[in-house]
Amino acid sequence: MARPGFAFSREGKNPLAAKGLTGRSVRVVVTMGMPATVYRRYFRAHSIKSLERNILGFVGIAPVHEILIGMVANREPEPARKWLAKLEKLGERGD
Q: pLDDT (tens digit, 9 = 90+) per residue, 47-82?
C-alpha cells in the first residue's frame, strides 16, 4: 500500500513531500487480553499512537478513529456478540 506514486510521491528534492492518501480516514480496531483502560492510561496506547503518526500520518490519512476491545479472552458470548454487532454496523455505514 505505501508505494511511491500511490501513498506518497516525489515533489522537488524531497522524495516524501506529497502525501498521496490525504483526505481519507481510517478506523483501527484492536483487541487485547488486558483491560483497554489500562492500555490507554498506563501504556498511553503507544502502539496505536505509533501507527497513527509513523504510518498513517506519513501518507496523509486523518482522522484516525480507534476502538480498543480489552479482555477478549475472558469475554462471555453475549458481550462479544454486542461488540461484533457494533462493528458490523460501523462497517455497513462506512464509518
A: 999 999 998 998 999 999 999 999 998 888 998 899
Is the CB of residue 18 less than 8 Å from the CB of residue 9? yes
| Cβ–Cβ < 8 Å for 32, 72 | yes
Cα–Cα distance measured from residue 19 to residue 55, given in angstroms and rounded to the nearest whole number: 11
Question: Is pTM, for the whole model, over 0.90?
Answer: no
Nearest-angstrom CA–CA distance, 20 and 87 = 27
Residue 41, C-alpha cell as written in the block: 492510561
Reduced to 3 states (helix: H, G, I; strand: E, B; else coil), residue 25 is coil
Residue 92, pLDDT above cutoff 90: yes
C-beta of residue 30 within 8 angstroms of C-beta of residue 68:
yes
SS3 content of the chain, % helix, strand, coil (to 5): 40, 25, 35
